[in-house]
UniProtKB/TrEMBL annotation:
Species: Oxyrrhis marina (Dinoflagellate)
PANTHER family: E3 UBIQUITIN-PROTEIN LIGASE RNF216, UBIQUITIN CONJUGATING ENZYME 7 INTERACTING PROTEIN-RELATED
Domain RING-type, first and last residues per copy: 221-548
Membrane-spanning ranges: 346-364, 371-394
UniProt entry keywords in alphabetical sequence: Membrane, Metal-binding, Repeat, Transferase, Transmembrane, Transmembrane helix, Ubl conjugation pathway, Zinc, Zinc-finger
One Pfam family this sequence matches: RING-HC_RBR_RNF216
Any one GO molecular function term: zinc ion binding
Protein name: RING-type domain-containing protein
PROSITE patterns xrefs: TRIAD
Taxonomy of the source species: Eukaryota, Sar, Alveolata, Dinophyceae, Oxyrrhinales
Amino acid sequence: MGSSVGRELVEELSAEFQGVSRSLVREVVQGYWADFDNEPEAEDEVRKRARCKLAQIREASKLDKNEALVILDSAFPLCPREVLRSAATSEKTVVHAATTLLAGGPLAVPRRVPLRVQDLIPDKEYKEAAYHCLLNEFPLLWKSQITAVMAERNHDYPSARSDCLALMRNRQASFFDGLQRATHTVRRHLRLEMERRAVEESKDVDVARELNRRQYADLGEEVECEICYDAVAWEDLLGCGGGHLFCRGCLLRFVQELVGGEAGPAVLARHQGSVKCLSMDPCDAPIPTLQLEELLPGNMRESFNSFLLASNIPLARRKKLGISLCPFCDGLCVGPRSIFAILKQSWVALSLALIVAVVVLRLRNLSGFDFWLLLAGRSLWACAPVVALLFLFLPNVFGGDTLERNFYLCVVLYFWTMSKRRPAVLLAMGELRRRVTGKRSRDLRCTQCHVLVCSGCNREAHNLRCFGDVPAEGTVEALQHFVEEAISAASIRVCPECGLRFRKGDGCNKMTCRCGYVMCYVCREQVSGYSHFCQHFRPAGGKCDKCHKCEMFATPDDNPEMVAAGRQAVALFVAKHRDIGKRIYAVTAFGLTFEVAG
């Protein structure tokens, strides 16, 4: 880069882009100047390209934290939400955050879950409002307890409120509880204000609807309902997929009869899964469920959704699908069907299976190289999934060891699926992979919100072991390890200062984080010394009858989540290995003892 020309260009661009550091401007100019072999005649072109690049960098630095989080989530779908939030808040720009994430490497299991409201980075006003609401609602909890809970829940008010309720239930009563002020007054005023606004909005909607109906009547542009044949306004009509229109009153009465059980068996069978068209014409087009939910009152929507869910479950079971209720949207989570059910529903696949079986048996004397050349032909390439089935169930036809057959199987399925993208073949490929590896997938995909749900713990799919992953070995060591993992997952604490996740195995309950924050492991309260803990002598090691302070060396036996997790792990292990109860009577993990029933 020319010394005088380059310095002048850097000075010019630095003055123009004051929000960008001078070193970054110099790097951009040097990079573009090197493309032109440091020719002074290319100054105008370098200035043009550098100005465009610096404008993009300046716009990226102006992004909001949540905007940067959405961009990072779309670019890194395999990365956990906690890592994305940390990168978006710690780095200056989204470019620096992306560089940090790329240095970390990919994960093993794709998350593929859209960002929810509680996953976003809350602003300062929301944090303060949620914090003061919790302080007002839970005056008997310490401020440090509420601060720790909010840090664990990403400052999400509903989640933090649930944890505070659990802390209140486990809290021992004190003498000064009767002197605390009541919080029901604030909640009552808030509830009354919300009810008043809802009533006013409902009245406004009714007035606007009546004015709209009169305007349609004056102009003579009303539309006829195909059930009651009344002339109504266009905004008061709902339609099916076939174009038939019905008024809101008729649909409301029909849904009430359908949900209330007043409809006959024939009507219930017709409207199984969704509400179909009610016209006299032979039309089976469904009426959009979202429009019906907007039509129904608030106390009836839950009953309507329960009716649709109950009618959808038998349909899915008849198709031999793995069924589960989605914990995020109350929808249906379905798993992959068996390969035999897929082939049974596709006569084309069965025909191709017979044709390819004959061809393969006729060509079994050819060498492996000649066979794969023939398989690459266009006529047989469409039969690749069926050839993969023959690899699996007729291994002697192709010869070779198990590793070689599995490798050919993966190659055939991969390239055929990438070219076709057929859903049925994707399900078949997943089933074949599980048969080859001998593993069953525990992940189910929700058909409504498309979240991947773990069937073992009914939560979002994860890499870690869940309570449903009972080990195949029925030994005492396997039971001990399984229970310890279950308790460890339920005893995680989060530092409210730096966000470090930790767990205490034994020892003192005064926990000091690496950032210097000191908290009580039992109640999550911030402490400064040992006066927070009980100092009285207890001969038998029981509860103190002189104070209600936390114990210094108390085992987590009073933690209901850890106890419930350990009991559930023992119950699942015993259900799979029933003879374990004959060899061991109890198992101890982290100071907790669980009885093993045979």
